[in-house]
TrEMBL record:
<protein>
    <submittedName>
        <fullName>Uncharacterized protein</fullName>
    </submittedName>
</protein>
<dbReference type="InterPro" id="IPR052787">
    <property type="entry name" value="MAVS"/>
</dbReference>
Length: 203
């Protein structure tokens, strides 16, 4: 009986090794800067601009008061003390008070800056107990501005029935395509969640 031989060339890699190589090619390799950039993209461009404005304003105030502009590096008690004073003293270039809506945006901008890259601080300047004294001044200033009639924030007059009808008939507001659907969505969100205590602008 003839001898039969087989030339078996097995790939001796284990299944685990194969899976590891496949997964290495499947997943991205990101460095810290890449992750920071992705984290920053959670905010719209308009929000980023407001954040830059708020930080710039705080740093300008620090310079004027001969305080450190590196407020991001301050420990919590020092940061809370600085913000307490800032909330009470911040003004527009002409010396008048900011509208309450702008005032709210200013505090939110500083919070985003501190908690975002590259600082990533684990603080909440709007809710943490360590910032209660600072927020008492913040709330007090908001009430003072409103009580003295200095809040100039306002909303535009309501859309007329004719203009509203035109927007629907022209399909600017509709569910027919992604663009008009987005307009439709924002229109109803703004209509439902309108700020009640703002005055109507005179035009």
């Amino acid at each position: 009986m003839a001898n039969i031989t087989f030339d078996l060339n097995f790939d001796l890699r284990t299944l685990d090794e194969v899976d590891t190589q496949e997964n290495n090619g499947r997943f991205a390799n990101l460095v810290e800067k890449d992750l920071d950039r992705i984290g920053e993209d959670r905010n719209e461009e308009s929000t980023k601009k407001v954040t830059k404005w708020g930080v710039k304003l705080l740093k300008e105030w620090c310079q004027a008061k001969e305080l450190t502009t590196d407020f991001e590096q301050l420990d919590v008690p020092e940061l809370a003390s600085l913000l307490r004073r800032f909330y009470g003293e911040v003004r527009k270039q002409d010396g008048s008070s900011y509208a309450n809506k702008t005032y709210r945006g200013l505090r939110a901008a500083i919070h985003r800056h501190l908690t975002g890259a590259p600082y990533n601080r684990h603080v909440n300047i709007m809710r943490d107990k360590d910032f209660q004294s600072a927020n008492n001044v913040y709330i007090g200033m908001m009430k003072k501005i409103k009580r003295e009639g200095l809040d100039v924030s306002c909303q535009k007059p309501p859309i007329s029935e004719g203009d509203l009808k035109t927007m629907f008939e022209s399909k600017v507001l509709s569910t027919d395509n992604p663009s008009s659907l987005l307009n439709w969505r924002w229109f109803y969100l703004d209509t439902i969640f309108v700020v009640e205590d703002e005055k109507v602008c005179e035009v």
